[in-house]
Amino acid sequence: MKFESSPSRQIRRTAFTGLSGIVLKQLLPSIVLVQLISGWYLGHARTSATFDVKWEIAFQILALMSIVALILIVARKLDKAEAALEKGESNFKSIFDFATVGIGQVSPKTGEFLDANLKFQEITGYSLEELRGISFVKLTHPEDRERDSAGFSAMLRGETPVYRTEKRYVRKDNRVVWVRLEAGVAERDVNGRPLRTIATIQEITEERRAAEALAESEAKFRTLADVIPQLVWILSPEGDLEYANQRLIAFARTPFAQVQGKGWIQFVHPDDRERAMQTLSQANRLKRALQDESRLLNGTTGAYEWFLLRAVPIFDEHGKLLKWFGTHTQIEERKELESKLNSALRSRDEFISVASHELKTPLTSLKLQVQAFRRGITKSKGTPLTQVNMDRLFGQMEKQVDRISHLVDDMLDVSRIETGRLKIERQDVDLCEIVVDLLERLRLELTHATGELPKFKRVSVRGRWDPFRIEQVMVNLLTNAMRYGGGKPIEIWLERHERFARFAVKDHGVGIAKENHERIFERFQRADSGREVVGLGLGLFISRQIVDLHGGKIWVESELGKGSTFYVDLPFNS
Q: How far is it, in rounded angstroms, from Cα 20 to Cα 301?
């Protein structure tokens, strides 16, 4: 069966039009030449006296035979050309029909299909006969028609030599398939109007689905990466930053272009950079997950913050390292807690050491006094104990017992504070009376420490406070003034304000550095006086808790070498 599809007919028409011209071009010079030679010869012969008509006839026959011979030679060439054309036509049909891509031709005027190969028919689900009555617009998915028609029209107008696009076809069975199309104008007339178009299509449905699935997966990843509190990133095996989530960009407060590649290194603390690169290099070599802690620069505050780095390697099917997927989790608070914990542990160890010493000292003294008392009672040696000696020993023993009792009370108060069981019992009380009574009870200690009793101007200040706990605060402040006052006089005063009462104790001792003004109110903290001091470092901590329970405040004003003044404000109504 002869191949008569539209492309073949066009080829045949063009080919034979060209061959006819070639035949005429080859025959015409020879025929004209034969006619000229025969005409010249006959004209010359007729002037001769020996001219014979028979020779003229013979010469005419010879010229005619030459022309016929020429025609036969050219005809033979034409037959060979036609045979070659038919062979090429057969080859074209094979290529056209069995191409691995769909090939189709549509009318430039109507857009209807003129021809389509087997692959095109397979992709669309239509036979060639069915396609010839369908416009490419109808075959195109409704959502793609406007864009596709505009591109096709631009190609026909010559605005673009080749029209390329990806679009959807609706198959005969209504299934939608994606195709990659390339179309062009195969021939135009002398006026530039398109005569023939040719197009190839390749089905890419699975490719598009994979791309859409990948795009959806990437969108989900980016959404997840942007909502989690961590800084998320992807590095190449060489350590180049390829992706950073929005939280990382916001933290660095720098465009991605400035952090990609090796730009991220500038945000790592200078002291951590070398270790960070060594850690990455080692992880590359070992091909295993990595974890590290480092400091990153906060672009907003300009401060470095601690982060925990975790990263896992991504490999291809051959085990080749492709990427590093990692996160930075902020651990600044954890680092602060660790620092506080370490400080607390040091304070605990110091407290245990101090507590052991503080408890052991009065117990040792008490033990020695008991032994001395026993020796006096048994009269095993020396003079029997007199009443004076007994009073002195009992006084010393009582003092050591009081000291132990005070230490135990402090530790119990700390326990009550920690468990929220420290309570206050408010009563109508005059702070002036508490101060006067306290100065009298501490007369010996104050006189021994400073050489005189503090001068105190009596000012009646009444309110509802817990007298026992307020006295405990005053004792702590006076005790500290005696310990750190350097033996110099102590000042005490009361002030009545509109909404609160103020109690103050001032010494002229070593003073307290400004950076320690708050620290001394923490547990197990003691001021540095340059000499050994007694106590657990709990007095000011307990005092602040007591004042807080009254709704007041306690603070210190001090400079090194200029003494210290402690203030306590107690509101009248809290």
A: 87
Residue 382, SS3?
coil
Cβ atoms of residues 453 and 436 within 8 Å = no
Cβ atoms of 201 and 212 within 8 Å: the answer is: no
Residue 341 included in any domain? yes
User: CA–CA separation, 383 vs 363, rounded Å?
Assistant: 26
CB count in 10 Å sphere of residue 31? 14
Q: At which of 168, 202, 236 does a domain end?
A: 202
Residue recorded with tokens 């020396």? 382
Q: Cα torsion at 83, 89, 94, 100 (round to 10°)?
A: 150
Residues 559 and 453 in one domain: yes
pLDDT of residue 559: 92
Q: How far apart are CA 86 and CA 98, in angstroms?
A: 18
Specify whether 290 is located in the same domain as 263: yes
And the tokens for 294? 């480092």
Number of domains in the chain: 5
CB 540 within 8 Å of CB 476: yes
Given a contact cutoff of 8 angstroms between Cβ atoms, the answer to whether 307 and 333 are in contact is: no
**What per-residue confidence (pLDDT) applies to 225?**
76
| Assigned token pair, 412 | 């119990």
The tokens describing 440, both together, are: 């009298």
Domain of 117 in residue numbering reads as: 99-202
Closest by CA position to 406, among listed 450, 451, 456, 445 = 445
Q: Do 350 and 487 sit in the same domain of this protein?
A: no
**H-type helices in 379-466, by residue range?**
387-419, 431-441, 443-450
Domain boundary among 282, 299, 330: 330
Using CA atoms, how far residue 8 sits from 51, 105, 489, 536, in Å, is: 58, 12, 123, 109
Question: DSSP string spanning 119-152?
Answer: HHHHHH---HHHHTT-BHHHHB-HHHHHHHHHHH
Residue-wise pLDDT for 83-104, tens only, equals 666 665 655 566 667 778 999 9
Calpha distance 156→137 (Å, rounded): 15
* Block residue for tokens 């490999």: 315
| Residue 133's CATH number | 3.30.450.20
CA distance 63 to 69: 10
440 shares a domain with 546: yes
Judge if 485 and 500 occupy the same domain: yes
pTM exceeding 0.85: no
Q: Name the nearest CA neighbour of 45 among 63, 37, 67, 65.
A: 37
Q: What is the pLDDT of residue 54?
A: 64
Phi-psi region of 527 (alpha: psi -120 to 50; beta: other; left: phi over 0): beta
Helices 539-549 + 387-419 axis angle, to 10: 60
